[in-house]
């Protein structure tokens, strides 16, 4: 009941005209970001952070804006999956399997409509799950001491590569690099200058926002330049909706199953939205197996992964909001926003910044409704925007990233840094070093060091305190599993996902 | 299949890790005496982890990615130069002129027709400038076009 009254307060925050306007704007921009080529959700949210700053938005509004963008991007990813057989983002991969065949059969409008409805259901289930689970987890997290937090951070890094990750050692290297960058600047507890080389701009440390924008936006531009994918895509026609009400009703069980599975995958460390949509799709195929025409344009094959990935995206917010430990790239970027707003994420946020947390959760619910309403009539517009060639789009996006970073500090020093991070990001991606752990390292590094320090001060320098409580031992074990499992199970899962992709008729 | 990429990266990271760890040992003891955890404790751990990681990379490298050669490499360097020159000229030339040039050049090099590319640059520059300076009252540098 307590939760319900908090939620009502959240609605009171989210439903003010000012916040509602930003939620609508965010949902629209998010859908665009999701469907445009070369602009993933993490990338898109990252570019918007400096802008949200310079606009001087109050914290709850800024968070509502960014979460709406996040939810919108999950909706948008499906559009290019269905129409072009090119997933707009990774979780939308499974939607290609049945979405594209439907489009080829002239049922693109139906596929878009059913996927919008399924996204809505998935998002709704995920958000309800978030509302129920988050306060419980937050209360539990209050029992964590510094040693447990330190172990939790290790767990976050270890599982970030995901079960499908390729080389866990590269995840470790990436995370270490990120944390190393975060140690630049004056040490908070002793005042020692670390790695500042007597450069004034480095005393305060390296602003992680420009690092994130550089790593994502600039490296993306460089990738496009290299592969010369600048050309546009052919125009697509959508046609009229022929979906019957009965067909829609027939997919409801699929949507519910997909949403629940997706949510679970989203909450669990190391799974994430891609796995959520994969599991939802495979399960649906098993359950309905013979009765369905999966892979040839079954509407349930569109509904399941979409419900799954939207459920997962809400689920991924649970660890981010309650523990301050994000499980995916985009939630890591949302965490960056929270930290820069001077809000300490974690269990205390639920008591100290209740208006923000519940405002964001209410905004997710409202955002889902807005997205459903936006997506059905406006799909034609999004489709038209989809055919903007990246050669015009990406330079503009890069310029917006420059403007955003410049407007934070009005110094070109930051811009050079951003470009440098972009180049580093390009090389790291080329060498298959994942970027998300780098960013998580940048964000969590200072917290990690602080907790390590506290734990050791409390124990008088005894290192065994880090693995002395049952809870921290458990966390260390899961972290260990997170590094070992990808080596054992990863290849099998990856092969299966690949096989599933191969079964589908390839385009052209 | 060669795997020079990972080996070179591993070597670079090893050097970085050693220098990073060594630098941490040089800091003066903080005021108030040494404690269990000093400013150098955490960096030292990181440096050890990175040494281990870089050795692993050199011993068991992954196969190389396709590195850009010839024209792609040239295009990449051009884009980088554009970004650096853009930053350099942003304040002296002003936002509109430098953005038109930067966005235009990038679009053109990515395959756009020159006229269309620079028009895209000009239009986007003016729109963003007006939006920021008048709509949001954040000042982007006016540069040469500044009217005093």
TrEMBL record, chain A:
Superkingdom field: Bacteria
Keyword Nucleotide-binding included in the entry's annotation: no
Any matching Pfam family: TctA
PANTHER family recorded: TRICARBOXYLIC TRANSPORT PROTEIN
Protein name, UniProt field: Tripartite tricarboxylate transporter permease
Species assigned in the record: Marinobacter metalliresistant
Transmembrane segments: 20-39, 45-71, 111-137, 149-165, 172-188, 208-225, 260-281, 323-344, 356-383, 389-408, 415-444, 473-493
InterPro entries: DUF112_TM
Keyword terms, alphabetized: Membrane, Transmembrane, Transmembrane helix
Occurrences of domain DUF112 (ranges): 20-440
TrEMBL record, chain B:
Domain of life: Bacteria
Pfam family, one: TctB
Alphabetical keyword list: Membrane, Transmembrane, Transmembrane helix
Annotated ranges, domain DUF1468: 8-141
TM annotation in the entry: 42-59, 80-103, 115-136
Name assigned to this protein: Tripartite tricarboxylate transporter TctB family protein
Originating organism: Marinobacter metalliresistant
